[in-house]
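User: I'm curious whether this sequence folds into something compact or stays loose and floppy. Could you predict its structure so I can see for myself?
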Amino acid sequence: MNERMLVAINGLKTLTNNGQKSFQIVNIGGVFEEKMGFNTPISVEDLQLMKQLALPSDYYDLLQLSNGLSLFQDSFQGMALGGAVCEIYDAETVCQKMVSSTADRLSFHSLAT
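Assistant: Here's the prediction. I'll summarize afterward.
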């Protein structure tokens, strides 16, 4: 497993009490509340299935720590500001997007021939 990723993700989990505790960032215009979202790690069986796909090895490492995550979910004075600044999809979403993308390419190919 990627040691830097392990330290970074576990550090964020500790800092935010596994995503349950927000923290404040002072920025131009005021104080923003930030949250992190972590999912339950992927099961060993599902990880083995995912490894059949041609995805970066770091993604498989991440799935073992958190099956997808969202970083820096901003809010200002109690109002959400449009979602996470960074979102890494869970395994199910990645599979759905890959199937959808493949279907789109097949549809385009059949139209082009």
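Summary: The chain has four helices and four strands. The longest strand covers residues 79-88.
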